[in-house]
Amino acid sequence: MKDAIAAEWLKFRTLRSNLYLLISALLAVGLSAGVAFLVARGFDAQRGADLRRFDSLGDGLGTGLPFAYLVVGAMGAFSITTEYGTGHINTSLTAVPARHAFLLAKMPVLAAVSLVVGQVLVFGMHFATMAVLGARADTVLLDGQTLGASLSEPGVLAGLLITGASMPLVALIGLGLGTAIRSTAGTLVALILVLLILPAAAQTLPRPLGSQIGAHLIGALPGQIAADGLLTPLAAGALLAAYTVAALAAAAVAIALRGRRLRPLLAGTAATILLVGVTPAAAAPTPDSELTWKPCDKLLCSEIRVPVDWAEPQGRTITLPLAMLPHTGRRHRIGVLFSIPGGPGGSGVEDLERRAGSFAQIRDRFDVVSLLPRNGVELGALDQNCLTTGPWITVPDSEREWAALARSNRAAAERCRAADPELFGHLDSVSFARDIDAIRSAMGERQFTFMATSYGGVPGLAYARLFPSRVRAMYLDGTVNPLRDKSEEDRARYALMEAQFARFSQWCANDSACALHGRDVGTVWNGLRSAADRSPVPAEKGVAYSGFDIAVAAMPDLVTPGADNARWKELAQAIRRAENGDATGFSDYVKAGTLGSLKTPSFVGMNMTHCLDGIRYRDYAEYRRLRALGERIAPHLYDSELWHPLGCVGWPEPARKPAAPLPVDQLPPFVGAGTWTDYADTADLALRVPGSGTIRYEGQGHGLYHTGDPCTIAYANRYFIDLRVPPLNTVCRPES
């Protein structure tokens, strides 16, 4: 056998076509660099959000790799077809009569040469691509990948080595095809079909069919061996080995037989190769689900029954609607991304319907699931009109006024509670968290990946406390912070609101579109509030606004100025009108956002969760202390943090136990994201878990992922997919 291998090495070195092939292989490096150059030019021509919509070049092999495979496949084929073409096959078989030994002797030569060539080409393509992309390679894209992937990125070095190591297998496939076909031209056509045409054709097919077929083709397998693609690494490796074995089996049959007996057997082996190629390899299984999902508009919908009282799991149940944006099938499914809606009482079903575009890229790897929670106003278990209204909150200046507010709140709550006292007492976030775990169990998932938005962070943290081992990842977006001491929380919130008021004032100073342009906005605001407290400003139907009413009505506009600062313009107009004795600028806004209420009501539907979760004052003394804190540190918005907890004064249901600390040693690192007005709360929560990261958005808004900020989505998707935590204080800026 040694002599046979030595002879094959001599033939390989003296075959001139091999030298040409090796030289032409360098074109693969040029192709990769050329595509990177075109991408870099296109990238530089874009601005803002469009920069994140590019497709990743990954490790840089995408364009050059098929050509490199074609070269090494041709090298394997030529090692046998040239012998058939020149007639030297007879001489070779005379020297080595054992035909299988003759074929076997070619394999180590081809494997050794193609392994070296493959590694050189693979690393050449990678370094050429990264050199052309330069700093652009580090841009995080919407699909969670970077434009390019350097060797320092997890899995890149392993992927390159595995791809280089796959070259000998492709060379052996070429050898097998060449032995079976016995024609240089015919084998080249077959290789071009398998390595170039079929992958291109698969890309033209509709999803997910095209992705599924493409994932099973030779060129896509090494990358899936290095990291999960649509196939698991084990399945991808097994399929690549099966291709090689099938091709060599065809070669073994072909070289052993002659004449007419050869044709039917070659047809059989060709059918075997085809069967290997089109039979799907085992992808990661989707867990068995107890839920039945049915199409409903653009979503899949289902429902689940959960106990009203989780302390009595065999007792009365309620039905919660569920919705899913299903995995699109382009890449291996990781699991379920569960979106916890805010509010409290917001509809996660509506979130998925309205915000489907924000989830477009992450659906390549996840089913995205949410629900209409037990505290959802639209659930219909309690009267909707009752839940979406409530008493108008006043600021008590005495214990007598405190008691009067308590009576008013209690009466409103009791009216809603009367319809279903049992459910009304179990609308807390801990019960919500247990509902989520029932969904996880029913879907057959070992863990959920979580996205918690706004107040959704409270049930999200409750879940993390109850079931830490079932949390794969936790992304918090502008979340409420239930773990801070109330004094600490108010101090932080007042500072944020004052900073936002300063931005509004600065905008007015700089923009003539502001109705208060040229005036000291802080002085105007405080003057209006003081005057309204002395003599409330008339709105309509006998309703008049106090300074507190004005502040409460102004907060949504102040926090979220909207496109082109439209809501700030509206707020400035309302302030100027109120100065002139007309508060309808505030009441009109409030009416549009409520069921026609002339003042901002204390929403019973929100309070029935807030109050159970403990967002309330212990007593009048605590209220006075925290009110005084606001008056000291927030000269313009000194009572902005009073409204929600004042809505729980006199509540008929006791608060649940205070939030316990997180079991941080049992949880994965979190990621928190927030804007100017909610970053501090979210970061404080996330950083309680060691190793966590944060995204600070230098701009306005609330709920960055849902509202489609490309930068935040890119970093969040990267975390969801690879569990890669962005550095602390990663900055995102508005991208248009």
From TrEMBL:
Keyword line: Membrane, Transmembrane, Transmembrane helix
Kindly indicate whether the keyword tRNA-binding belongs to this entry: no
* GO molecular function terms listed in the Swiss-Prot or TrEMBL record: catalytic activity
Write down the species.
Nonomuraea pusilla
Residue span, Peptidase S33 tripeptidyl aminopeptidase-like C-terminal domain = 642-732
Transmembrane segment boundaries:
20-40, 60-80, 109-135, 155-177, 184-202, 234-257, 264-283
Transmembrane helix as a keyword?
yes
Question: Which Pfam families does the record associate with it?
Answer: Abhydrolase_1 (PF00561), Abhydrolase_4 (PF08386)
Protein name per UniProt? TAP-like protein
The AB hydrolase-1 domain is annotated at 429-530
